[in-house]
Amino acid sequence: MIQGTGIDIVELFRIKEMMERQPRMIKRVLTDKEREVAEAMRSEKRRIEYIAGRFAAKEAFAKAMGTGLGKLSFQDIEITTDSSGAPILNSIVLTGQKCFISISHSEQYAIAQVIIEA
Fold first, then answer.
1. Whole-prediction pTM
2. Residues in the annotated binding site
3. Can you spell out the DSSP letters for 54-106?
4. Which residue has the higher pLDDT, 67 or 61?
5. Which of 21, 27, 43, 79 has the most CB within a 10 Å radius?
6. Which residues are annotated as a binding site for Mg(2+)?
7. Which of 16, 45, 71, 105 is catalytic?
């Protein structure tokens, strides 16, 4: 049974601007493990897509939980990948629920959808 669903879309140029204006934004949004992955990326374009995708995914998850990011922190949510590269969402607030996540990018946007199943 579906417990919650959330979707979020962000403009890549806004994430790039935030990164330039507020370098600490990356530490606020990404966990240590996510930051390691981002820092290893050689292409700035791909790094921005990655950060924007994680940002959108965390926002989408907070919406699916029905709490928004006021009650959850970006640090409470971590997106890793499985062996084939598909995203996996982990959070301290998931207790027995199954979480499905999809992240996509275009030239201008990153979008993420999360479905939580009880």
1. 0.94
2. 8, 59
3. HHHHHHHHHHHHTS-TTTS-GGGEEEEE-TTS-EEEEETT-SS-EEEEEEEE-
4. 61
5. 79
6. 8, 59
7. 105
The pLDDT assigned to 71 comes to 79
Residue with tokens 């979707």: 7
Active site residue 63: yes
Reference 30, options 9, 65, 14, 54; nearest CA is 54
Work out the number of other CB atoms within 10 angstroms of the CB of residue 43: 9
Alpha carbon distance 115, 118 (integer Å): 10
Token code pair at residue 68: 């928004």
Rounded Cα distance, 22 and 25, in Å:
5
Distance CA 16, CA 37 (A): 17
Residue 114 clears pLDDT 90, i.e. is over it:
yes
Token code pair at residue 47:
């790094």
Out of 16, 27, 58, 63, which one is annotated catalytic?
63
Per-residue confidence band for 39, with pLDDT thresholds at 50, 70 and 90: very high
For residues 62 and 57, what is the distance between their CA atoms, to the nearest angstrom?
Answer: 9
Q: How far is CA 18 from its chain centroid? A: 16
